[in-house]
Structures are given as C-alpha cells and as structure tokens.
Amino acid sequence: MSSDSDIPRQDELARERLIDLAAEFYDQFAAGEVPSMQIPTRTKSNIEYDEEKGVWVYGDRHSTRSANTVGGAQKLLKAIYVIDFLQNQLEENRSSTLRELYYLSESWDLDAAQFNSQDESNGLIEDLEIVSHVKREDFHMRPEESGAKVMGPLLIREQTNRGEREIHCQDDVGQGGYQIPNNVDTVEFLDHDADFVMAVETGGMRDRLVENGFDEDYRCIVVHLGGQPARATRRLTKRLHDELDLPVTVFTDGDPWSYRIFGSISYGSIKSAHLSEYLATPQAQFIGIQPSDIVEYDLPTDPLSDSDVNALRSELEDPRFQTDYWREQIELQLDINKKAEQQALASRGLDFVTDTYLPERLEEMGIV
Length: 368
Fold this sequence. Notes:
Layout: H1 6-30, E1 36-40, E2 47-50, E3 55-58, E4 62-66, H2 70-91, E5 96-97, H3 98-104, H4 118-132, E6 141-142, E7 149-151, E8 154-160, E9 163-168, E10 178-179, E11 187-192, E12 196-200, H5 203-211, H6 214-217, E13 220-224, H7 231-244, E14 248-251, H8 256-267, H9 276-279, E15 285-288, H10 291-296, E16 302-303, H11 306-316, H12 324-336, E17 338-339, H13 352-364
Parallel strand pairs: 5-6, 12-13, 12-14, 14-15
Antiparallel strand pairs: 1-4, 2-3, 7-10, 7-13, 8-9, 8-11, 16-17
Helix pairs in contact: 1-2, 3-4, 11-12
C-alpha cells in the first residue's frame, strides 16, 4: 500500500535504475566492448506456466540487442533516448502517455532515434521494464484511458498530483462509478463492506448490475473490465483479493476469447509475463457465461466461427484450462457449436441475471 512518502522513493528508485542502465552502456564502451542488452525472448515458446505460483512466467531463453549491426545499434540508440526522456520526466515529476512518447520522438534531434510506429515505442518501454525490474507506472508512463470503473461498498484514499482525496465507491460516485487510475498502487483501501468482487467483461452488463442494485444487495464490488482488461484493472483486482481477502469472480461472454480474458486475470498473459505475480489472481473463479448455461437456459446464440473453433481447441491444450471443469465446458461448446453473450440472459427478463442466474451460481460456488 502506498503513502505520500513512498511515491518519491519509488520515483527515485525508478530513476536510479534507468541511470544504471545507461551507465552499463557507457561501461561497455569504456571497456572496448560492443554495447548490448539482454532481454527474455518474448514469444509463446519462451513462456512457462509456473505450477507453484499459478501464473505465466518467462523461460530461460534470452535475445541480445547488440550494436554490432545497424538495426541493433538503432534499437540501443532509441533505448538511450527513451532512458534520458524518462529520467528527466521523473526528475520533473511529470507523466506522459505511451501515445505521447511515440509522437515526442518526432522532436528528437536524430532521425535514427525516432520511432517508426507506436508498437515499436510500446515494445521498448516493455523492454526497459524487464531489464530494469521497474514497472512502467513507476516511470510515470500511462496508457490511453481504459474506461474501467468500480462500483461497490469500498472506501479508498487516492494520491493524486493535486493532493489526496477519500472516495466511497458507492456514495461518492454517480452511476458511472469510480474511474480506475493508471497506477492503482497510489490507492489505499480504508474500509469496505464487501463479501466478494465481480469482474464484468461488458459495459452493458456492468450497467445492468448497477441499475438493479446488485452491488448493494449482495455486498459486491463490481469491476468493469472493458473487454481485455488493462494492467491497472488486473492490479486492482489482485489487490482487492490479496489485501482485503475477497473472493474474485469473473463474469464474461460465453466464447473462447472471453475465456482468455478470464485467463489473463487468473494466470496472466504472454505479453506481460514479467509482471504475472504483480497482476494475476490465480484464485479467481469463472462464473459464466458457461456453455452449460447455453443449454440449460436455451439462450439466444450465434454459431461458432472457424476461428472460434480453433481457439477452443487451442484452449484444450492450454495449461490455464487443464481442469475437468474447463475440459467439460469446452468440449460441450464444440459439440453444440454455439456461443452466447452476457446480454443473452435478458431473453428471460431484465432481472433474471441479478435475481436468479448470479445468485444461483454464487451459491453453487460457495461464495454466498
């Protein structure tokens, strides 16, 4: 949990790590060596499922960014420019977005240091996270707004650049809820009256739960994921579980891509495997939509596409889904050849999801 005194210390640590990286390049030059930087190979083949921790982590394979080629030299040049920019940003207590960094490079004095695409600049920030062991949030780098919100019986204190403020995530917010900040480690949990957390994929379902008073009736903290959840959303969910000892449930559409949203919350993702222990909540439980729900409630559906079928078959081999429950559900879905959205529950009435479906599932799972 963060306090005012922690934030400058975190900034200084991040700045020191960046300067240390630059110093390594200088030392290599001084020793007559070709400058280089080693980074874990960020490919699916170098991702391992840590059974003990229950998350994805990088394996032992590394790639080397070396200045012994023109392309390698350009990548290291860009890294030096970004390190300089980031350490100045921290020194001035400023922040910027990943998108702004891409455009800022246009003003750099060497054309070779400028980025060709935002994917390139985003990838370099990830590289610096990995080699420095500092999160991009501590570099004061922000993604574009994710739009994710929280609604529920939770009192927090948030540290902002305009001072601290206390917010109750029901009483002090409108229907939209509390906007999750980029760096949720600046948020302190003061008090709560919650029994569990429900992470919800779609905005429409999140609005239905709030309009029906589900967060109040069931003492639930509703976290809107906004599709594939941003890092801040996954970090907040993990903190709610770890620090407040609240069970976490994940409520998504009933298709293979939504199951992967659950997987990213529970076990982490390939792209952010270096942060799995910081972002993932292995204890999270999937609440629906299940393929068995499609059959039991005769929900409106769409047929599976070829890509859906391929994704489901891939998930049968995915370590994240190697349980009897997931094998039964995925095989059933392949058999019925159907998928359904969360909103399909409305075919049984607008209150069905909050009056029947979720209470029954929560009772089955032993949460209420």
